[in-house]
């Protein structure tokens, strides 16, 4: 077995999980997903050994390198659609969220549910803060709230509502842990500074400070937001059939009174046009040079970030593809 294999996985409405040779665009393995549920989201562990698959209402954990098509573990506890899954960087826990209004953290070694966070509204997405010492997880929900949780204590440290009564579909935390980005049902992107004050005076203070707000997909749903591995690019997927690549910028502008100030904004780098229906999910390569997108049009596409061009097509699913997971990191 290759010591550093590229793991590329897609799944969706046809009840199959497909693994691909990314260079040859060929399907190397098809795992039948035997439950009646569709597959909503997937995540790969950082060591490439485990694939978490979110369905309704269970989560299945597969051994990537096993010859068996059966999951090694099934996580039962949610009572409705599981909308997102993410491994902690230390691979001790798997975080999930659901339309049952809860967020759960599962101990991977035992499969037991260790922590349950009660949100009070259907949870659409979660993002774990990269610094595990902070014990923070960010969520967004159907009622339009973004919350920052200290998961081990099951407490909300802060919350914001970007637009009243507009569902927030996706959240992401930048690789350096300093920014939180959220996309909503009206095509708006909100970027917040995540301010953490752990000084003795503050005790434990967390704040979301609005940094940038811009219209990414006018009037269309944003289905996914994600940062590139180096943190320099922001990808937004949408029901308008496109994915857009943005660069967050700061420039010096004259201030109202004498002097200068920094003005933050978002610069459109590429509009990725290929898919014929909704683009549901995307995944960056570890070097931030490539992006994989998936769509209801049954296809996945690999994009070059420099040119903004499709360089590989992945065809084989019989119905819409709604989730992708990629891990091409080298040791």
Structural notes for this entry:
This protein has 331 residues and is an all-beta fold. Helix content is 0%, strand content 56%. It has no helices and 28 strands. It has strands spanning 7-12, 16-21, 26-32, 41-44, 50-54, 59-63, 73-75, 82-87, 93-98, 102-107, 113-118, 123-128, 136-141, 146-150, 155-160, 168-173, 179-184, 188-197, 205-215, 222-227, 234-238, 242-254, 260-273, 279-284, 290-295, 300-304, 309-314, 321-327. The strands form 7 sheets. A 4-stranded antiparallel sheet has the order 3-2-1-28, with no helix packed on it. The radius of gyration is 19 Å and the shape is globular. The mean pLDDT is 94.
Q: What does this entry show, briefly?
A:
This protein has strands spanning 7-12, 16-21, 26-32, 41-44, 50-54, 59-63, 73-75, 82-87, 93-98, 102-107, 113-118, 123-128, 136-141, 146-150, 155-160, 168-173, 179-184, 188-197, 205-215, 222-227, 234-238, 242-254, 260-273, 279-284, 290-295, 300-304, 309-314, 321-327. It has 331 residues and is an all-beta fold. The chain is globular.
List descriptors.
mainly beta, 0% helix, 4-stranded antiparallel beta sheet, globular, 331 residues, 28 strands
User: What is the count of β-strands?
Assistant: 28
What would the principal axes of the Cα set say about the shape? globular
Which structural category fits the helices and strands? mainly beta
Report on the biggest sheet.
4 strands, antiparallel
Poorly predicted spans: none
SSE succession? EEEEEEEEEEEEEEEEEEEEEEEEEEEE
Question: How widely separated are the two ends?
Answer: 14 Å
* Averaged pLDDT: 94
Strand percentage lies at: over 45%
Instruction: From the alpha carbons, calculate the radius of gyration and give it in angstroms.
Output: 19 Å
Strand order of the largest sheet: 3-2-1-28
Please give the share of residues in helix. under 10%
**How many DSSP H or I helices?**
0
